[in-house]
Write a structure and sequence with these properties.
It is built from 8 helices and 10 strands. The strands form 3 sheets. The protein has a 4-stranded mixed sheet. The longest helix is centred in the middle third of the chain and has 37 residues. 49% of the residues are buried. The site of flavin-adenine dinucleotide has 22 residues, from strand 1, strand 3 and helix 8.
Length: 317
């Protein structure tokens, strides 16, 4: 998470790429994959010789992931996978997909979803999607037409994919907050040096009380975000059941704060902050994904209210 934060200071996109690859793809495969799957893929991806992507969302369903329609059907002794995945980070570049597919009736929802490790082949077609921020993360639509997989390509249990997906996202949410911390710090650092250099009305911008108050508030927000995110990461390391609660709080609050901090940083830069030369402008666009990817703000609140109502479910460390 700290590495994501540091990389995020320079580029939200690079940090998000590392998060999707390192947490969603690698960590999930490491925890749920068989020895053959791990040995065949992890070293190649860790060395940079191959790229992996986590393919869950579809045109029909992002928040309602239990309703996905990509289907794996039994054909002879194999699985035939067909469907469409949407908004897949690294989708353009991926050699391997950790892919969620329906292995039972749609009415069975999350109880009939299986994770497959699928290698890119002629049955996979990817199309780039133009996105507002985090550009360069290879966001793509992924079409699958009769992709063949064997039982050995199942990651975790048949029909047990949803548990692995939820665990990946629960960890991913604190990691995404780390990306947000980096974005906030990068935007703040640029705005601070701008305010110290920029002259108007015969004074430096940083000498105006309004600018001082803006910078102070941005700084306070970053420190609050840091305390929350580090606490969530600490709870994970300490194997505390409270992690599940705090990972949702961190994702919700840091995502929102990152958008606000980047907007205020860009505003301190006036017209420059609206230009492509400004890094605050980039961070502002990058930050918006933090309110959407790996569960929108509303999905975080939905989960939080469930904890309020029912208490914490168990989490597999
Ligand atoms: C740049 C980018 C990268 C992404 N990378 C990946 C990736 O690598 N892998 C992957 O699988 N997915 C990825 N996604 C998809 C992302 O996870 C989904 O876009 C996200 O979960 C939202 O789903 P949706 O787009 O279908 O919106 P919807 O689920 O249709 O939501 C629409 C709106 O309704 C709100 N809403 C949803 N449910 C409720 C509710 N119960 N109550 C009230 N309001 C609700 C949402 O908050 C949202 O505002 C990526 C998306 C983007 C934009």
């Amino acid at each position: 998470m700290i590495i994501l934060e540091e990389v995020g200071r320079a580029s939200g996109g690079m940090s998000l790429l590392m998060e999707a690859l390192g947490v969603l793809f690698l960590d999930t495969l490491n925890k749920y994959g068989t020895e053959r799957q791990r040995e065949g893929v992890l070293p190649k991806v860790a060395s940079g010789d191959a790229v992996g992507a986590f393919a869950l969302s579809e045109p029909c369903c992002g928040s309602d992931a239990a309703a996905i329609e990509t289907t794996a059907r039994r054909v002879g002794g194999e699985w035939s996978i067909s469907g469409r995945k949407m908004w897949i980070t690294n989708g353009l570049y991926a050699d391997y997909f950790l892919l969620a597919a329906r292995t039972g009736a749609k009415e069975e929802r999350h109880k009939a979803i299986t994770l497959f490790l699928l290698r890119r082949g002629p049955c996979v077609e990817t199309t780039p999607i133009e996105v507002m921020g985090v550009r360069g993360t290879g966001t793509a639509e992924v079409r699958l037409e009769d992709c063949r997989a064997s039982d050995d390509d199942i990651v975790g249990r048949l029909n047990g994919g949803f548990e692995a997906i939820m665990r990946a996202l629960d960890i991913g949410r604190t990691a995404v907050a780390g990306v947000g911390l980096g974005i906030m710090r990068g935007a703040y650092e640029e705005a601070l040096s701008w305010a110290k250099e920029r002259e108007l009305f015969g004074r430096k911008l940083a000498e105006f009380e309004w600018a001082q108050f803006e910078l102070a508030e941005i700084y306070a927000t970053i420190e609050a975000a840091k305390a929350l995110t580090y606490y969530s990461a600490y709870l994970f390391d300490a194997r505390s059941p409270l992690f599940l609660l705090y990972t949702h709080i961190a994702k919700l609050m840091v995502g929102r704060w990152a958008v606000e901090v980047a907007r205020r940083a860009a505003h301190l830069e006036g017209g420059f902050g609206y230009s492509k030369e400004s890094k605050a402008e980039m961070f502002y666009r990058d930050a918006r994904i933090l309110e959407i990817g790996e569960g929108t703000n509303e999905v975080m609140k939905y989960a939080l209210y469930k904890f309020i109502e029912k208490g914490l479910p168990s989490f597999q460390f």
